[in-house]
Amino acid sequence: MSLPALVGALMIGLALGLLGSGGSILTVPVLVFLLGQDEKLAIAGSLLVVGLIALAGALYGLRAGQVDGRSVLWFGGAGALGAALGAAISAFVPGPVQLAIFGVVMWLAAWTMLRRRAPATESAHSPRARRWLIADGLGVGGLTGLVGIGGGFLIVPALVGLGRLPMPRAVATSLWIIAINAFVGFVKHLMVLGPARTTLDFEALGTIAAIGVAGSIAGQHYGPRLDPATLRKAFAVMLLLIGAAVLWRSASRLLA
């Protein structure tokens, strides 16, 4: 693997550990642009990478007592169903179109990170908040299965705003939800890919995941010492730039 790909793998883990989101949205660009993989294979492979990195960070958060089990149950259960449905739908969507949707989602993620979060108005785990968490979980899971993102940029604000979780607890909880969604989506993608699944580069995926795990743990360890607002803004700018490159590639493929 090239040095840029290794740096990209480290960035994936650091973003997940520092922000509880964003790392997964870098995985597909790393696989497509730095490793030259086909869009559909990159989306399937990204789910395995994201799931492994998120699981390692989730276990770290569980050990620290930061995970909210009820949020994992409601959000993660709905997300798993959405991920399976999204992966099934992906069989009927051309790769360049999936990449275009991915680019739009990157810009949405950047906008979400740049805007000011609204104050929480619901009591924790109220029936209304629970319904919103389930609905959000279905939507995020659908995106996970369709285009290979973890959706932490949508999960963390929901956990903070609806579940009334403090930021460190929301980050740790989101990693469990991301891991659940990613593994369910990956298994479904293997079924959708059929014989093409044999071309997945598991050696490269394993290397990226291992480096990402180290970055995720480092991010969770050092994250409380850093200003989260500054981190979000810097990461949002990077997403805007990479999103533009993703949209340019998808447009070139569609118009070719």
Structural summary, described in words:
The chain has 256 residues and is an all-alpha fold. The chain has one domain. It is 79% helix and 0% strand. It has ten helices and no strands. The protein has helices at 3-19, 24-34, 39-63, 69-90, 95-114, 127-147, 152-161, 167-193, 202-222, 228-255. The protein is globular. The two termini are 29 Å apart. The relative contact order is 0.23. The mean pLDDT is 83.
Protein topology:
Elements (H helix, E strand, L loop, with lengths): L2 H17 L4 H11 L4 H25 L5 H22 L4 H20 L12 H21 L4 H10 L5 H27 L8 H21 L5 H28 L1
Mean pLDDT comes to 83
Shape: globular
Q: How is the main sheet built? A: none
Low-confidence sequence ranges: none
How do the helices and strands follow one another from N- to C-terminus?
HHHHHHHHHH
End-to-end distance: 29 Å
Total strands: the figure is 0
The number of helical segments is: 10
Radius of gyration: 17 Å
Helix fraction, binned, reads: over 70%
Tell me the count of domains.
1
Structural class by secondary-structure content:
mainly alpha
Sheet-strand content, in percent, reads under 5%
How would you briefly describe this protein structure?
The chain has 256 residues and is mainly alpha-helical.
Task: Note the main attributes of this structure.
256 residues; mainly alpha; globular
